[in-house]
Amino acid sequence: MKQITFGLILLLIAFTLGCSGGNLPTSPADTSTRDAASGSTHMLWGMWQFTADPLVKTLDFVPLRVADMHLNALPFLEPPPLLNLTLESLEFNGNIIEADIGLRHPFLGLNEFTGFDVCGILISRGSISGFTDPDILLPGPDDLHLLNPDGFTRWWNPAEFPVNNGTIFSYKDGLLGTPQSTGEYNATLNGYKYFCDEFTSPDSPMSDIDPTGRGIFGAGQKNVRHYSIQIGDSGLIFNYAVDANWVFPSGPPPWQVPDDFPPVANRPEAWNITVEVVENTLWNDGVDSGGDLSLSIDVYDWYNAGSNLVTVESLDNFTAAEDVTPTGSGVGYSTYQVDIISATPAQDAIDLLITVKSDMSGYGGLLPGKAQASYFMTSVPVDDEAPPVEEDPYGWWCFQYNAPNYGRNTHPQSFDPSDYIQKSYCADFGRKYTGPAVTENYVYVVTNPDGVYTSTNYHITCFAIADGSIAWQKYINPQNEYRRGLASPTYFEVDGQGRIAVGGDRLYCFDAVTGVQIWTYREDLSFISTSVKVVDSRIYAAAGGAIHCVDAESGAEIWVSDPDITGGEFIPAVADGKVYCNWDVYWTCLDAIDGSQIWRVNTGSTADHWIAPLVIGGRLYYCSYWQEFVCLDIADGDKVWEYNEPGSGYDNVWMTAMTYWVDPSDGNRVIYFGGAYGAGVHAVKDLGDSPYLLWRVTNGIYADSSPTYCDGIIYVGDRATYGLRGFDVATGTQVFYQPTAGGVASAAAFAYGRLVVPDENGVYVYETP
Predict the structure, then answer these.
(1) How far apart are CA 101 and CA 609, in angstroms?
(2) Nearest partner of 383 among 290, 251, 250, judged by Cα
(3) Are residues 80 and 220 in the same domain?
(4) What is the CATH number of the domain that holds 588?
(5) Do both 372 and 393 map to the same domain?
(6) SS3 (DSSP) at 76
(7) At which of 265, 285, 318 does a domain end?
(8) Were both Cys, which of 554, 594, 603, 615 would link to 575 (CB 3.0–4.6 Å)?
(9) Cα 16–161–120 angle (5° rounding)?
């Protein structure tokens, strides 16, 4: 009978940190904040190894001598053997091992050595890579791995941490186990089970832990956790480590647990997450795939949860959502809203790796430059059929579709650019800037009959899609404000009743069907030059150099930002509880709830013409009248990169909003914007830390209108030669052209399978028969 052996390392509450000659620490670590220099409170203590024999279904532990510790721990570990590490139950179920592992704290009555965030880690080989962090390697389905992890950690993997270096701050082979040189444990993320006094059974979920209890492992306590281990193709080759956190309590004895232990006694990384699927339209029918995924993630952290950054990724299924910041909080946790748009999921289900980066880095100096993070896996189902448009229609409710200004309807559309007819036409003479709002039965558009600058003829029109007849029309500049008319209407609902918000000589709200005026806001300010955004029953609009937050139902003022943070021709972006606004070279990020300033930066790149930033994937993109295209990090406003082209005067005037496409060949995002006076259409790829011009089409195109995306085509209006043009997203080849009677300065819209195109004379509605 051949016996298979493998090592077991227990890295428990290493109170030996800083000790020499066997002396225990006596001075308290009295601090209320984490010390960035020390990097971590993670420590190691004690070692075991074990042997397993699948033929007779046995698992045996052997306590090891620990001669290389600063403190001789033998009095605490042996005799008797197997007191502090126990096998409570064992079952071999085919290729799965079911085992209950018990840990007992060896220091009965010594509360000063209470453990925090104790985790038993299963160390194995890995085969899954390709994540945003290139050093991550996860066990795959054919590798030995933990089937029921409470989380994943980087700590103590022998591929990155020191191996057998003679200190307790390293991975160490067991004397009789499979050594690293043979086992080749290359996984950098390994699953673990969490040991805590609050658990009442080996299978207790993490939700049983009180978010205020600090996850303690009390002196003399015993905790048991259930491990379900999938045996890999290479057999039973793995190691086991226990990670714990601890610092000496503050003040004189007797010490109270956990109150006398400072926050740094807990690990700096988040200890748990919960994931709620807000929306899941992912589908894969075996031929094509698509859909969106919206998640609400609560991140639990004993210390400053709001300082974490969250990344969600799933290999080959969608572009990673990186460094997402909190949108809310509760007792012991912060909430993160993650929206995945236009995914290409695999069939049945996809696995998500959720990375939660803490505000610490370096792993105690062992991994310099690496952000200390905790990792979690979850799975979401994928439908086997694409949702039919007629059963799942979506409108185009504001300029560039939504509050972050995506410039694309994120839901499937059925418009065929090679087979369509004109549904209706509404005559409405005058220049139409920005874009329409579209519902199932109506189109809303703002028209400026007097060219660029407004008069009392400035108005909003609602017309029926079915036949182009005007349902209602309102003049929105009775005070005759003489400013550029750039507003776009926004549709929203209150208690199921449709309403329209639009900027004029004041902010107006009309009933969407009848046109009855419901309320107005601030007659002393002009909102003619800005399109508003509606999020969570709040309206956000720029006027008088400030952002105004208004109750959508009543029109009451909620807050007004500090002055001089935004221009009069600016369209804000609202995303994940933040409002982004610009004035000249300055960008400001505001809290959407109270209007407080989160950051303000000088980018050095002027953007003082009419612009609407695109906010997606942790980045803000904008282009300016002065041939500048810029990418900012929304976490702090830092400029990531800037793209410029040679040119002067009106040769390269970039001043539109944007849309985007994700290149499946490399997963990078391509941003599209237009330029006036013949500057044409640009496609610039975001390579992460630099831009790349994918293509540019000029041909004398006056692309005053903002581009929009639908099904692989970028649609851009032409104000000079008239018409709407469509370009292949990857090559820039023109694949669509629809002539119009007048110049197109308004963005097209796609809703309910229809294409809506305003020009200087009216509005066209097209659909596939």
Answers:
(1) 65
(2) 290
(3) yes
(4) 2.130.10.10
(5) no
(6) helix
(7) 265
(8) 615
(9) 65
Residue with tokens 């006027």: 543
Query: 160-174 burial, b for 16+ CB within 10 Å, e for fewer?
Result: bbebeeeebbbbbbb
CATH number, domain of 303, equals 2.60.40.10
Reading the block at residue 76, the tokens are 């605490």
* Structure tokens, 56: 């007779």
pTM of the full predicted structure?
0.56
- 293 lies in the same domain as 250: no
What is the 8-class DSSP label of residue 671? E
State which residues form the domain around 233: 4-265
In this structure, are 298 and 410 located in the same domain?
no
Domain identity same for 738 and 700 = yes
Residue pair 449/492 in contact (Cβ under 8 Å)? The answer is no
**Domain count across the chain:** 3
Q: Tell whether 330 and 235 lie within a shared domain.
A: no
Task: Name which of 617, 623, 593 is nearest 605 in CA terms.
Answer: 623
CA 622 to CA 612: how far, in whole Å? 7
Residues 368 and 221 in one domain: no
Phi–psi pair at 338, nearest 5 degrees: -120, 125
C-alpha span between 254 and 234 (Å, rounded): 51
Other beta carbons within 10 Å of 517: 12
The residue to which tokens 């992912």 are assigned = 282
